Amino acid sequence: MGDVNHNSNAGTHRWADRTDFGDGANGLAVAIADARAASRPLIDLTVTNPTRCGFVYDMAALLAAFAVPTALQYQADPLGAPGARQAIADQYYGQRDISISPDRIVLTASTSEAYGYLLRLLCNPGDEFLVPEPSYPLFDLLASMQDVTLVRYPLRLHDGWRVDWEALRACISQRTRAIVVVHPNNPTGHTAEIAEQAMFQAVAAEFKLALIVDEVFLDYPIHDAGPLRSFAGPANVLTFVLSGLSKVLALPQMKLAWTAVCGPESEVEEAVHRLQFIADTFLSVNGPVQMALGSWLPLGADIQQQIRRRVSANLERLDVLLAGSVCSRLPVWAGWSVMVRVPAVMPDQDLAVLLVEHCGVVVHPGSFYGMAAQGWLVLSLIVQQEEFDLGVTRLITGVDRVCNVEPCL
Ligand SMILES: Cc1ncc(COP(=O)(O)O)c(C=O)c1O
């Protein structure tokens, strides 16, 4: 048996089990590909790539930052260019009155990459980390690629997505190394309030776990809820706070993210020392983008405002369109997504396929984000307004007719 290759796509090679991803196609992806192959136009209500949503970027200011001699010089620094880390400390955290030394900021190409580094830092193969459910779907792949086990702690829908602390504690084992907090969470759009932040810190301290806090949507509170409180700053437990340009400046293509390491002095020092080796192995962050960061961060206010306005307008429009339909939506406190409740007459994935095939609209099934219950769809709130209107109208018509499966185009 020892020589038998268990992989589905074995061919003549021996592949690592962790890369046995199958063909990656699910029913929804196939339906979308078929519609595109048949040139059937689709309204995509899942677009979260801000560069495709009609926002106005200050192109001159962005590109001017590359037209400097330093853009052609390379100086490797494992943690990232000191000037870029200083800019994050001064401008991003400074404006929130959070004092953090640039020496405790580690740059990566993306927050996804930062997760990879942190799992490498904290976990041996087979160790566990806790993630909220529902949440961002990339965790499964991140875990399998780092040979670690993902354990999901439930959020309570009926309670505004508050953490079920008893259930979270029950998830902790001898092998648990970290708790992930997504603040604000995607797709629920809820945030960890101050009391909940303290509770996460208390549980992490009790079980000697690290906190990994994903704050990529921190700049996107809805309805002038006021600035959201970051986990960065003084902390009694080792805390890694993640953010990056894909949301802060709505520039995912620029590939720059950061991890602010907070907590007890000696643990922070050791963590940064070890992260330095991991980062030095890859040196993945683009040089010119690091050079540009100081002049780019001030541009965040404008693009964030455009996005927050779009999100609010789409939410208002959604409420108008949903009124009187069989669908409803959950409250959203922050972020770029909304969860829509639909009659649970079939698995969400099947409904999403029907909506593509019969109504020409793409939505994500709740199951994509780990929603165990049926009857949930997730929509992006940064879609351009006309498209959003048309897409939601098609969605509602489609759901109304879903039992008869009549085309609604
Ligand atoms: C909660 C959350 N974290 C991280 C990311 C990915 O960010 P990055 O582009 O920096 O990898 C996303 C992407 O949408 C996200 O929703």
Key features?
Aspartate Aminotransferase, domain 1, 14 strands, 13 helices, eight-stranded mixed beta sheet, alpha/beta, 409 residues, globular, disordered N terminus, 37% helix, binds pyridoxal-5'-phosphate, Aspartate Aminotransferase, domain 2
Please give a structural write-up.
There is one protein chain. This protein has 2 domains: 133 residues, Aspartate Aminotransferase, domain 1, CATH 3.90.1150; 231 residues, Type I PLP-dependent aspartate aminotransferase-like (Major domain) (Aspartate Aminotransferase, domain 2). Helices cover 37% and strands 15% of the residues. The protein is built from 13 helices and 14 strands. The chain has an 8-stranded mixed β-sheet with strand order 2-9-8-7-6-3-4-5, sandwiched between helices. The termini are far apart. It binds pyridoxal-5'-phosphate. The site of pyridoxal-5'-phosphate has 13 residues, from helix 4.
